[in-house]
Amino acid sequence: MSEIMIQTDGLSKFYGPFAAVRDVTFSVPRQQVCGFLGPNGAGKSTTMKLLTGFIAPTEGTVKIAGYDMETERIKGSGYIGYLPENGPLYEEMTPKGALKYLGRARGLNAAKRADRMEFVADKCDLSEVWNKPISKLSRGFRQRVGMAQALLHDPDVLILDEPTSGLDPNQLVGIRQLIKELGKSKTVLLSTHILQEVEILCERVVLIDKGKIVFDGPREEMGSREAMENEFHQLTKFASA
User: Fold this and answer.
1) CB-based contact 99:120 (threshold 8 Å)
2) What is the mean pLDDT of residues 22-41?
3) Which of 10, 118, 150, 191 is 20 to 30 Å from 21 at the Cα level?
4) What contacts 25, CB < 8 A, 6 or more positions away?
5) What is the layout of strands, in order, in the sheet containing 80-83?
């Protein structure tokens, strides 16, 4: 297996004349938590969908664990755990029922499925809502169910789009700690518009604005939090202008 777990080269997505992302090139090795930072509308979610094969690029390539997501998508997808922003859930099911169904769909045998369900229920703190319909859950609990399904098959690559959205302070601490732990053995690409998230969790930052990468390097190279905030606020101001 490749030690470069996420690799993009010249990745672009056009909708008519509009470029949602343009010439996005970066790579993420094993055992790294990389922050994918940018203001709303910068192209973060589009890039995430391109990485997972959810949508096809107009130009460029994506490789996951060395597998080209255009020609070897099934193999590459097996390495991915994906938490989309506002991802759909089976609302008529309970977390237990949904994860059991998804475990079967992933091809996990009964013993492995039970072991992984126990793991994600604990790590995502779902015990108190385990048997409640997902439609009745708060946004925070629904987000945790989404995280659980991303972790269920023990993937090598985690692609997380705004994973802490909707969590209360206690839940936030737990999920952040979980992401830190996972980064010791897995590749984590974390999309966020929250600077504090990057400061706490990420050793590297890819900063995107208007569909283009404007910074890629160690978090420390972005400078102090004050410098990061000033730069990010400038991007936000220009994006909303």
Assistant:
1) yes
2) 93
3) 150
4) 8, 9, 10, 11, 60, 213
5) 80-83, 157-161, 187-192, 33-37, 204-209, 212-218
